Amino acid sequence: MSEPAASPDDIRRGIGARRVLALAALTLAIVIGFLAAQSLAGSAVYYLTPTEAKQRNLAAGQTARLGGQVEPGSLRYEPASRDLRFVIGDGVSRVQVIGTGAPPGLLREGAGAVVEGSFQADGVFRASQVIAKHDEVYQAPPPGATPSHRTTSP
Amino acid sequence: MTFGDIGAGALRAALLFALAGIAAAAFAARYRDTRGLLSARWCALLAFVLVLIADLAMTGALVTHDFGLAYVANNNARETPLFYSVISLWAALEGSILLWTLILAGATAFVAWRATRTLPRLATTALVILFAMLSFFLLLVTTPAADPFVASPFVPENGRGPNPLLQNNPLMALHPPLLYLGYVLFSVPFAYAIASLILGEGGDRWLVATRKYALVSWALLGSGIVAGAWWSYAVLGWGGYWAWDPVENAAIMPWLTATAYLHSVMVEEKRRLLRTWNLALVIATFALTILGTFLTRSGIVNSVHAFSLSAIGPLLLGYLVAILVVSSGLMLWRSRELADRGTLGTPLSREAIFLFQNVLFVAATVTVLLGTLYPLIAEAVSGVQLSIGAPYFDRVEVPIGLALLFLMGVGPQLPWHGASRATLERQFTIPALSAFAGAVIALASGLRGAAPVLTYALAAFVTATVVQEIVRGVRARRVLHGEHAAQALAALFRRSGRRYGGYVVHLGIALIAVAIAASQAGAFEVERTLAPGGAMRAGQYEIRLDAIREVEEPQRRRVITDLTVSGPRGSTQLGPAFAFYPNATQPVGSPGISAGPGEDVYAILAAYDARGKAWATIRVRVIPLVSWLWIGGLVIGIGAVIAALPPPRRREIRAPLLAAEAATGAE
ipTM of the assembly? Predict the structure, then answer.
């Protein structure tokens, strides 16, 4: 099973090849690292409460995620035009959300929801994605606090 | 005696045997003493039997709805069907850890009885480490933090029932146990790697001894991931199967490093290179299985899988830190013994391709880890909450995946040391033409964009290399042994299982790549609100809403929309539904899927008129080739089985060799 002993020529060639390979592997790693850093900055979506969103004065069109509660009595879905409207709030601030398409099956008034999208110039949030939090035990966040996007044990 | 008493007692007794096993195995390793080994064997077997009793006690408690146990009260109800009661063993945290412990105890007992016959130091030392890990998990399940047999504070009339998402589809019976088997079986290579570091063995004995464990663990983890994707597709009702959710990332990361390891092992065997690297990969894979469990079970990262925050988190974190500190400390201590002895070939040699492949796999792991942990880092550093969505992962992982697909075609075609121009021409003419044909097929089937077209081309490239290899192998056997084509093919798989099983795995990966490209790039969606009797069109299909009806079942109430889908495949009935469970405030949707070889029709009930049942909003996705993803998973499994089967004993070869040895008096 033992390898035949390497001749000096083999070793020289080996070292040269090793250098080329190491260089190529390093380049590869750097390119991927650069790609990852670039993409990371570009696809970070901030997760805000309606209060934070108002404080930050997000530019119209900037993608963000709002998390809060669907205000009771605000959920409207028009089956024919498929217009979806509801208000998402955190006990302090509220934001009118509009979207297109049926709400996810788990979306209920008073329950937690996360909407991804951006503010329009008129301050209405246009959601491209509505996610209902299907936590088994959802605890409403204390007023003004960031709603936990984690679950807590009962 | 209740099930709770039996289970709790069995776990505590098992802990004693596991601790005794550490001492016995250490004695056997230090003095190469048969009595020590015998004690260690019996400790391992008894610990396994006791953990099995505990698992059966929990199953018994679930099946008989013994709500005196908190776990049963929280995860079972009188109405839960028997099947879902049984699989509720892994429906929540404590039960999952119990299953984990059972598998680890099984692996420990297997190693104790199979691998230690001649008392090799390596195996007995590895056994010490396995016993230590088993003791940790037994300590875990006997502390209040994760004790599955804690009594309910009061015995409720009825339990809360399992998580609705987990009792909606029978795939739940398959997906978690496969993942856990994959996760836990990797403990064996890890234990051997650590044992070899402790003993300061320079050779690759640990690696040869655990190659099969690594392969089986890798295959089970891979099947678990595919089963999970299938579950997500069939249950979650969003028409996708992979969302780069932390739980999914936790499963894919150890699979990526294990894949790298399965390949770099060959470089160490053939070329005596990459020793430190292989040890590091095994340690990293094992650490990632624990990290994944920690991330998803501690509730520290945001995940739609929504696991509960638990006191088990800090314990697992401590375990992870201990593993990393001990492993890296040992590697530093033994760094001189780990120096490579071989030399590397040219950049156009197989070992060079393996090197690039390993760099890419590790880069994929690191970038997935970065995307998964970045929200945590950002919150710790600057206090902002943010999420890293699928775009990040798609942008980074798709190019890496394509590069890997390319190397998967190139690697097996290159010889070790280096390739000549003539070899390159002989090996790559047909595959290159096939790649071109693959690109043409992609464009002809309407796919646009660089990534899907490249995927088709590279998948065709890989398939051609595999077919070429198999055809050449068959032809060689026909010439040499005068076998029929089928006979020669079977002999190839049987005799060179590791090599040809690997090729079959490559075919499965190519299949999955095509399925992903087609289903991601070629899917479209139509959403309409229909009154009963109304119809909508989605591509070539007409979907008619026949009725909206309610069904009462013991454990749930369902609202079902009856759809008739007519299209090129004839007409089928689908019933996407909402299920209302008494323990959940929100209904669970279940899609109606008409699967076919060309495309799936995936219907989702998005909303309906609860009062008069006058309308329902139906979303229909037409998803090309997605079934081939699950089939690809099956092909990978078959390939792994071919690779893991022991080759037949070669009596016809050995006999003349022995005669020759006897004649020359050698050895």
Answer: 0.72
